[in-house]
From TrEMBL:
InterPro entries: 2Fe-2S_ferredoxin-like_sf (IPR036010), 2Fe-2S_ferredoxin-type (IPR001041), 2Fe2S_fd_BS (IPR006058), Beta-grasp_dom_sf (IPR012675), FAD-bd_FR_type (IPR017927), FNR_nucleotide-bd (IPR039261), MRET (IPR050415), Riboflavin_synthase-like_b-brl (IPR017938). This is Oxidoreductase. CDD domains: fer2, PDR_like. It comes from the Bacteria. Residues 234-319 form the 2Fe-2S ferredoxin-type domain. It holds the Pfam family Fer2. GO terms for molecular function: 2 iron, 2 sulfur cluster binding; metal ion binding; oxidoreductase activity. Keywords: 2Fe-2S, Flavoprotein, Iron, Iron-sulfur, Metal-binding, Oxidoreductase.
Length: 319
């Protein structure tokens, strides 16, 4: 997969909210873990053969541990269930070193963090980092109810608690997040970060674009996609060798390439993480990912072979 693997021990497992557990991971010998920046995630290899991406929640300076939080998803294909039911304190896990596809904008004078549900995980790390570095930020956390909001006590006790507002679906409508009002009142130099369920993220990003926010001020990370990777058959051509590989209707490009002996690194398999991104030299992709922005997709010069397909008969790939 390109990054090195680590073996870590679960030193703490704690219920953070209804259906959400946190896991504190540490090096087996107590050594510092590899450094990371706010917004980073790790791949976790879960018992049962699953690999899932989880955002790191703790402050990047706390190198003795990585903290992740996992929602027990009713739609789970097995990964989150195994984390909740199989993985216990004392268990060892194989993980990747951290990667960051959702970094803070280093030069931004103000940061606006919007979290929905379990999407709070990268935002917690961002808030910790921004607060300790003295940067201006505000955080809004939306959840169905207080009982389903992870880390709410931690946020309430944090030194930056006055910059965090929580909004609950089942409480007084007056306290619900008014997305157009919030984004409309934000200063023109603010950068927006959003993570959460797709419906929540779509509402935030569509509102921001309608209000004229420039794309380079919008930062987002999707998780838990259910992406349709099927479609008509087509072929891909490797620019380096001219070799043509057929992609049947029921197979992804990544699978077809692997069967032909061409390995492309794949992590999430759902078009979320960007690990597998490949340059497209000719042809028109049928984008199914959540990683590229609409502008990046429209350029049709790269695509995610783990899930995206082709509108044209052939795609020529920079492989």
């Amino acid at each position: 997969m390109g990054e090195s693997q680590l073996t870590v021990r679960v030193v703490r497992k704690q219920v953070e909210a209804d259906g959400i557990c946190s896991f504190e991971l540490a090096d087996l010998g107590g050594a510092p873990l590899p450094p990371f920046s706010a917004g980073s995630h790790i791949d976790v290899h879960i018992p049962g053969g699953f690999t899932r991406q989880y955002s790191l929640c703790n402050h990047p300076d706390a190198r003795h541990r990585y903290v992740i939080a996992v929602l027990h998803d009713a739609q789970s294909r097995g990964g989150s269930r195994a984390m909740h039911e199989v993985v216990q304190e004392g268990s060892t896990l194989e993980i990747s070193t951290p990667r960051n596809h959702f970094p803070l904008e280093p030069g931004a004078p103000r940061h606006l963090l919007l979290a929905g549900g379990i999407g709070v995980t990268p935002m917690l790390c961002m808030a910790e980092s921004l607060a300790s570095d003295g940067h201006a930020f505000a955080m809004h956390y939306c959840a169905r109810s207080r009982g389903r909001a992870a880390f709410i006590d931690h946020l309430g006790r944090a030194p930056y608690a006055d910059r965090v507002q929580c909004h609950f679906d089942d409480e007084d409508p007056a306290q619900k997040l008014d997305i157009p009002a919030l984004l409309g009142a934000a200063s023109a130099d603010a950068h927006l970060y959003v993570c959460g369920p797709k419906g929540f993220m779509d509402a935030v990003l569509e509102t921001a674009r309608r209000l004229g926010w420039a794309e380079d001020r919008l930062h987002y990370e999707f998780f838990a996609a259910s992406v349709d990777t099927t479609g008509g058959a087509f072929e891909v051509k490797l620019a380096s060798s001219g070799k043509t590989i057929a992609v049947p209707a029921e197979q992804t490009v990544a699978q077809a390439l692997a069967n032909a002996g061409v390995e492309v690194p794949v992590s999430c398999g759902q078009g979320i993480c960007g690990t597998c991104l490949v340059r497209v030299l000719e042809g028109e992709p049928d984008h199914r990912d959540l990683y590229l922005s609409p502008e990046e997709q429209a350029r049709n010069d790269q695509f995610t072979p783990c899930c995206s397909r082709a509108r044209s008969r052939t795609l020529v790939l920079d492989l």
